[in-house]
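User: Um, any thoughts?
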Amino acid sequence: MTKPPFSKDILKIRDIEALADHLGNLLKEEIFVKYKRRGAVVGISGGIDSSVSMALAAKYIGPERVFGVMMPEKDSSPDSESLAERLAKKFGVPHIVENIRPALEGFKCYERRDEAIKRVFPDFNPVTDKSKIGINKTGLDQKLPPLFYLTVIDKDGNSQSKIIPVKEYLQIVAASNFKQRCRMSMVYYYAEMMHYMVIGTANKHEIDQGFFVKFGDGGADFYPQANLYKTQVYQLADFLGVTREIIERTPTTDTYSAEQTQEEFFYQLPFEIMDPMWYGFENGYSTTEVGEVMGMSAEEVQMIFENFARKKKTTDYLRANPYYFPLI
């Protein structure tokens, strides 16, 4: 089959209604026919991905069969809960707020994280200061892996950043991942109590590039958006009637105390550039053809493709199912 010429709008969904109907029918098939459950639970955060998952389910299985769970904690933006609640009300989806801060404090999530931060910045005060981890763009223009930086911001808004040592990076990430794993436990509590299934909210980039927590936000029964690029998620959001305030909101991790975009933390590229680049990478387009369309040299495109390949390879274990050892 001949590939279409590469273009910036190659990921424009030609028949959005047909796509939504297809995903909606699969939802009904999985929930009601295959597994004979009563409905679906979704964790809602006011972000675009969870909003689309909720809106899709409300449209195709009925809002009365969908249950939304908002799970704020100490570092969450107040906007996340309010946006999620307004959207749930718009679609008529029953919902509840479960503050997971006490559970995280029980796991010593914040204490373990701050302990590692203080080894890098001894004067860090977790009561007044904020922190975040970010990634530089070295890996995009050089044949080197990207470097992670730890940034702390004091109460006066002064910030300082340092390359974060591996030990401290791993501890901060491991501690922060309690958040996603607590949320997974909470949505499964409601799913089991109601005899529902859990809808995953991850999109294609999050799954393919490993931007999720194993057995955290990577724990769900199915993922309607698993093969949708981020810009396609936005197209579907618009069709389903997700509010403009959510569609126009900058995607953030909502994990660290300092505000941080997904591009800053992980992706390194804006979605309108990354989406067609990833499509070209996956579908065997030449670096020359992609570069001509994207305004880059073939060498620049090659480096970005190598960065994609490195991310995919180093996160294979996240996508791997548990291995059931065979008997001899």
